[in-house]
Every structure is written in structure tokens, then in C-alpha cells.
Sequence to fold (554 residues):
Amino acid sequence: MKQGGSKNEAFSLKTRIKRLKRDSNRWSVFTLAIVFFLALPIIFIGVELFSGPGESWSHIVEYLLPEYLWNSLYLVIVCSIIVLVLGVSSAWFVSRFDFLFRKQMEWLLILPLAIPSYIVGYAYAGIFDYGGSMDLIFRQLGLDFIRIDIMNRAGLAFVLSISLFPYVYVSARAFFLNQANNLLEASKMLGVGEGKTFFKLMLPLARPAIVAGLVLVLMEVLNDYGAAKYYGVNTFTTGIFRSWFSLEEPQTAVYLSALLIIIIFALILFEKWQVRKIKFTSSKINSTQIQRKEPKGSMQWLIFSVVFLPILLGFILPVAQLIYWAVLTASTVFDMEFIIISLQSFAIAISSAIITVFFALLLIYFSKWSTLRAIKNISRIGVLGYAIPGAVIAIGIMIPTLALDKWLISVLANFGIDSGLIINGTLIALLYAYAVRFLAVAYNPIDSTALKVDDSIPDSSKVLGVGNLKTFFKIEFPLIKTGVFSAVILVFIDVMKELPLTLILKPYHIDTLAVKAFEYASDEMVMEASIPSLFIIFTAMIPVIFLNKLLIKK
Fold:
């Protein structure tokens, strides 16, 4: 009897192992299929390169490409300097010192992220223009207005910098808040001053975190289209739009996109190299939070001024200008058509957020249920879309969907069906593009929340014979719903602000608030662009404040 029982147990064990392998292989295949589906736009751009450039490529290489390269390089260098100065200094001061209105400024410094850079560009153009806000203020004071010409490359660099510096601020502050207090105490005991301690000790240690934030800034700088177009600065993104729409040469746009992808991935590799180059440890014993000092006298006001300056430039002035314009134009802009556009924007944004979060959940858990180690690393390929500019992703989607639509039209024509475009120029292509572009935004908060769930919980469920899907819905999803909710909000806001991708792929009969604001500005109706801009800003402020709450340790 014992021998028969042991045989049955061995047979049952073999059967269970075979079933686990079969399930693991199935989840691996599903993961690879999703990764391939999300990587299709980049794959098609690579394939299209073999078709050769368009007729105007030689002209672009000779006359325009040097300008694209120089302007992009200029923006990268100048923006790097400004965001590092603003972001790192404000992060250090709010982490190290306890000064007037410090708690309020901690979250106010993040609010510039709620304003898309092209909207900040519109606001500053109005502030410094003839007849603008500065001109009116100078007249009221009886002074001669000294006009500052901001509609140039330097002005664009300033606008992008004050819009994007919070990326560096958030990364640096998170590091400073968690940095070892005893390092500062040891430095003080050795008689080293505050300034030397910061530059010689804290800044080198924080460099990986700062570089991580800086790379995000530079990717957004290279992705910008609305502000660069309005300020008349030729960059890679404006060149891609010009090649596609003005020259009607998709092949040339593809070649420019490929060059931009190379630059973006060079930035990513630079970040990885920095992190590997500077290795540091943070033990639990040395991880006490920095004890804040209270500056005295004039130093209190100096620190307050340094921290308040980026808030003033990046949020208060642009929003004040937009509110002023909104009061003047509300009667002409705020109508039923605007309400419909707002509802369309909200519907598209929430639909995109749900779809993107759905794909993120599939990638995270399918790769988790697979026993193949390589699958987890392969699944992260699917999140690289966030590193690719929106215009590039849009082109990578438009080319294959146009070819697929042509094939479907010819097939359906054999059955006497005149279908027209089925995928291209529809919401299907737009929602797919948003999922590719913002998957990383959804993936990261969900993945970090899922890592906190003890593996013994789902393992116990499997021992009891419950499948992966049932275990997920009954046990794991309730534990990660906070991360899922965060992901939905963050993707929602990014979709609301996205401009280049939406301009290329949106259906003709559908508008969004971002597109409407851009159209008003392009038609020299900048004042009318204020109301859709304010709707985007105040909608984005909610998750930005929510993001800040997650970052502050209680």
C-alpha cells in the first residue's frame, strides 16, 4: 500500500510540475506578445529606414539638420544648467533648513509640472510683448517699458527650464531627505563649513539621483513641439512635423525620428553609466533623516528668496497671466463647443489611462507568473515608449496603420464594401499610441506597490490549488489598488497635457484641450488659449499634489 501511495504521489508531483511548466510557458508567450505589440512603432521605424530617405533628405542634411542639431544641443546645455541650479538648490534648502513658509513651498515647487511647457511659453510671450502685462505695469508706474525679446532660442530654453526643473527637484529632495544625518554631524565635528559640506560631500553622493531627474528633463526638452513651434525655433520635433505635413515625405520624417531616438537612448545610457560609476551604500544605521537648521537674520530671507524664485517664475506668473486673459475672453471662448471639447478630453484621457493601466498589469503579472528569468527583463522593453518623443511614436503608428487600412480597404472592396479608414485617423490608433507612450507612467507605481506584497500570500493560494487569475482578483488586486489608482491618475494627466502625438493621430472630428490651446496660439489668438490652458492646469494640480504626498515621509 505504501509503495502504491508513493507512486501515486510521484505521479501527482510530475503532473503538477508539467502543469506549472505549461502555465509558465503560456504566461511567457503572452508577455512576449504584449511586448512586441507595444514595441511595434519603434520596430516599424527601424524597418522603414531600409526604404531610403525622401527626396528632400539631402537638402535637409545640408541646410536644416545642422540647425536642428545645434538648436537641440543649445537647449540641452542651457536647460541643464538652469534646471540644475533651480532644482538642486531648492531641494537642498527645503531639506536642510527650516525657514519661513518652508512646508508650503515644498509642494508649491512641484506645481510647475502641472503646466505644460507650451502653455508657459504662451503666457511669457504675453507678459513681455508690446501691450502685454509688463508694458501695462510700467505705464501705470509712469516708467518706460524696456521690452525683453523672449521669442527666441534663449527664451525657449528659459521657458522649458522653469517648466521642467521640478523633475530634478523631486529626485534631489527625495535623496536629501533620506540621506544620513550623521554624515553632516561628522562633517561639522571636523570643522567643515556648510557650503563645503554640500559641494564636497552631499552633492557627489546625490549625483545619480540628480542625473536621473536631469535625463527626464532633457527627454521632455527634446520631445517639446508646442513651445518650439510658437517661438520659431527649429528642433528635431518641429523638423519631423515639417517633413511629414509640409513636405509630405514620411520617409524623411522617419530618418529624423531615428536620429532623435539615437540621441534619447544616448541620454539613457549616460544615466545608467552615471549610476554604475558612482556606487554608494545606505545602511539602516546611517539612514536617519536630515535635521533641519533654522537660519538667522538675512540668511532666512535669502533662502526664502532663492526657493520662492522658481515658484514665482514657473507657476505664479504664468497662471496669473492666464487668469487675466481668461477674464477678458471668457464670454467668447466658454461656450457649448468648449464644453464638448472638455468632455472629449476627459473621456479620451480616462479611457487611455484605463487601457494603459490594463497593459501594465498584464506585463507585470504575466512576467511574474512565468518561471523564466529572462521574461522579467524582456517585459521592461515595453516601458521604453516613455523615452521616445510623442511625434516619433505617432509616426511609428501612422505608417503601419495606413498600410493595414489600405490592405483592408482592398479586401473589403472585393465584397462591395466601401469601408474607408478603419484604424488610422481613429480613436483606436490614438488610444494605442497613448498606451505605448505612457506605459512606464503606469508600470512603475504598480510594480513598486506589487513588490511590497509578500510572495507567501499568492504562493499559499497556489498550494491550495487556486489559479493565478483567481488569486490575483481575490487577494493581490485589493493589496495593490492604491498603486493602480495612482497609475490611473498619473496617466490621465499626462494624456491631458500631451500635444505632438495628439496633433498627428487625433481624428478630424475630435479635439482636446491641449490641441485647442495650440490652435488658438497658432492663429495668433493667445488670449483665447488661456481658458483651455487653465482647465488643463487645474486638472493636473490634483495628481501633482497627490504625488507630493507620496514623496514626503511622515
User: Anything to note?
Assistant: The mean pLDDT is 81. The longest helix spans residues 2-48. The radius of gyration is 26 Å.
